[in-house]
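Show me a record, fold above all:
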Amino acid sequence: MANDSLDFVQRGKVSIVRRQYAEAVKICRLGLLAHPTLLEGRLVLGMALTALERWDEVLAEMREMADLEASRWEDGYALVP
């Protein structure tokens, strides 16, 4: 994983620890524009949204994570003879 992708995840985590949840959401959403398949970024976003009690958005992010993981599994499964 590239350092720039880890950077936004780490900054999001730091914002959550500081209870700056809206800032964490902003950081993660911007980072996910460049790295939309980074599951850890979506998880941190979900944590910030949970702290803000934005349940519909939390559910949407968790669904997106499930879809991404299912897609990865299907892609990997297709490689097995």
About this structure: The mean pLDDT is 88.
